[in-house]
Amino acid sequence: MEPHLAYLDAGSGSLIVQAVVAGTAGVVVAAKLYWRRLTSVFRRKTPAEPAAPVAEQPKATADRD
Amino acid sequence: MTPEHTRPQAEPGSFRDPQTRVFHADGEVLRGLGAQAAQDWKALRASDFFARTQAERTVTRTEEVDRELPGAPGTWSATLRHEPLPFVTYPYEWSHAMRQDAARLHLRLLQDALAAGFTMKDGSAYNVQWRGAAPEFVDVGSFEPARAGEPWAGYRQFCQTLLYPLMLQAHLDLDPRPLLRAQIDGVEPAQMRRMFGGTKRLARGVLKHVHLHDSIQSRNADRSTGAVREQLKDAGFNSELVLAAVKAMAKLVDQLDWAPPATHWGDYRETCSYSEADRAAKQAFVDAALTAAAKTDLVLDLGANDGVFSRQAATRAQHVVAVEADPAVVDTLYRQLRAEGEQRILPIVMDLADPSPGGGWAGTERAGFPQRAARADVTLALALVHHLAIGRNVPLPRVVDWLAGMGRTVVVEFVHAEDPMAQRLLANKPDGLFPDYHVDTFEKLLGERFDIARKETLPGGSRTLIAGVRRD
Asked: In its keyword annotation, does this UniProt entry include Transmembrane helix (chain A) (predicted)?
């Protein structure tokens, strides 16, 4: 990934909220992010194990409500 | 191009993004672009999206020029020239409908930018300015090519300087201007959360943009934005979600309406003490003074009320700023002007006894009202002095000094102490508190700073108009 040049501190929490604001598909992304954080401790301990099942869900598409 | 230019002066309010800086020179507005910003500009300039913003005048008209700007060699890779603004205003001087239109413009531009493969670096209300009653986005340096899978960096700033202030007014009927004036970066999510407790958290948009925002923010305070960006990308965040979020915000902004309450000013003209004859004479006087003025590029109508004299002045002037203390009156006037497509009258909310001070870094990032008003050519102060002198106890010599700091031509309406409107103000003050409040005293004081050009007492006998030209 290219280095990020943003001059503004976007706020790490504010970035995550945006996903929720985007609607259902965004909520799925946020949930996935939190799930991965939760399972990362476990995954780090046993790197040979397959990834958590939720990570294999089909890629989220934008919510059109 | 003329060979001689005065050395451009750096705009004190332009420094946050090191890649771009605004300079002033001979009334021109120039912008330096660093290497990266110049590259972004070249991409932007070539896009249909940018051409559209220029044609629709939603982004300040901009061209590239061949000009040197101050700075170490190599600092600036390109120089832009922007169409100057008639008058700079800040979000703490806008009415609700103005703020709503500013937010709409920002989100519409972002939507169009995203569709064209660009994004905006920030989301600040300060990037929106006005040409009359039409909002205009001034920060061309804000546009950059979008990176796939990245959320909008300006979301928090947009919340703090536009969305939250709209929510405060629409949901709580609370004027956000004092908060905006006190905090240059706007209202914090944590502050909002305290104001939206109990059932108020169910008000439109509040749960997500305020409560969830604040709680996720505090839980992620020790994580870097770079790491979170990576995590979001890995979790499947994509450009469609950015667009969906922006659309959801635009829908919310449309729903954050506020109906200005009927106020005592709202029906001022109906209850006003002067007759038709008085009004006609006053209009003729103002018209004559404006016609005689050497320059009328910028007219300030101080205490503009419903804007009737701003409208009259606009027939003789390039631009008129209608300054009025009552936000409800300004909101109504703005809606009218916007509906008419007026581009020469800009209404702003300000208590003239407590005008906007300088703000931000070193107190100069945002210019105070007196500094901005000094550029005016003509000052109208119609039925204003009694509010300052009687209502706010400002001594008449100080009122005159203050007027001398603005337009070279001044038109003042002095309301005599026996006028019913002055009586109404005097009724709340002890007898004899203002022995000097008299038209002769005022005329003498005004004469010390201005050459009195004309003077006329209206047929009703309780109001005197005086026009003067400052002795420079």
From this structure: yes
